[in-house]
Amino acid sequence: MKQIVDFDYLEGFAAGDAQVVTEVLALFQGQAEIWRGKLASPDAGWQDLVHTIKGASRGIGAHALGDLAEQAEAGDAGMAPQVRAALDETVAEIEGYLSRIGGG
C-alpha cells in the first residue's frame, strides 16, 4: 500500500513528541474540513487555497498532496476534484495513524 503521509518525517520534525504530532495532525484535520468546503465550489481565491494546502501538507509529510496542490496552484480550479480526493485520502490515512497511536 502506498504511503500517503510520511509520519516518520513529522515525528522527526516534532522530535518524537507524540503529543505534538497528535496536535499538529488534529489542526490539519480541522483545516481540511474547511478546505473541503472551499474545494467543492472554488472561487477567485483558488490559488491562495491550494497554496495553503500545499504548505500545510508538506509540513506534515503529505508530500503527494503538496505536489498536487502545487500543480493546481499553477493550473486552474478544474483541478479541485483531484485535490479534494487527495485531501480525503490524506485525512483518512491520518485518522488511521491516530487510531494506531491512540491519539484519535
Structure description:
The chain has about 100 residues and is mainly α. The chain has one domain: Up-down Bundle (Four Helix Bundle (Hemerythrin (Met), subunit A)), CATH 1.20.120.160. Helix content is about 75%, strand content about 0%. Helix 2 runs antiparallel to helix 5.
The secondary-structure class comes to mainly alpha
CATH fold category name? Four Helix Bundle (Hemerythrin (Met), subunit A)
Tally of individual helices: 5
Return residue spans where pLDDT drops below 50 for at least 5 consecutive residues.
Answer: none
* The CATH fourth-level homologous superfamily: HPT domain
How many separate domains? 1
Q: What would you call the shape?
A: elongated
Distance between the termini: 21 Å
| Average residue pLDDT | 93
Series of H and E elements: HHHHH
Q: Give the tally of β-strands.
A: 0
CATH architecture: Up-down Bundle
Name of the level-1 CATH class: Mainly Alpha
Rg is 13 Å
Q: Could you give a short account of the major beta sheet?
A: none
Percent range of helical residues: over 70%
Report strand %. under 5%
Topology of this protein?
Layout: H1 7-13, H2 18-40, H3 46-60, H4 63-74, H5 80-101
Helix pairs in contact: 2-3, 2-5, 3-4, 4-5
